[in-house]
Amino acid sequence: xxxxxxxxxxxxxxxxxxxxxxxxxxxxxxxxxxxxxxxxxxxxxxxxxxxxxxxxxxxxxxxxxxxxxxxxxxxxxxxxxxxxxxxxxxxxxxxxxxxxxxxxxxxxxxxxxxxxxxx
Length: 119
Hints:
By secondary structure, the protein is an all-alpha fold. Helices cover about 85% and strands about 0% of the residues. It is elongated, with a radius of gyration of 15 Å.
């Protein structure tokens, strides 16, 4: 892996970890604003806590090569839901952070797959 790709990988890991750990902790803490989107879609309250736990676990899992592909793939699915929410229930401009996080996650998935193929 070249130095640029290596730095891009670790940059992606750092940004993803910070974003998902913060969002997951906020959902697990019951911050009302973090749960409003689930209520708007008619989802049960427990689902917001489940997503928060998944985000937090994923933010840690992306660092372990053995779990990284699974964690990043799960987080991409969550970002798919976030993008859907913003496009349908909110403004399209508000979907940009979720799209950026999805792109960072795809970078992690691609690089981890290449590492597994080489090993």
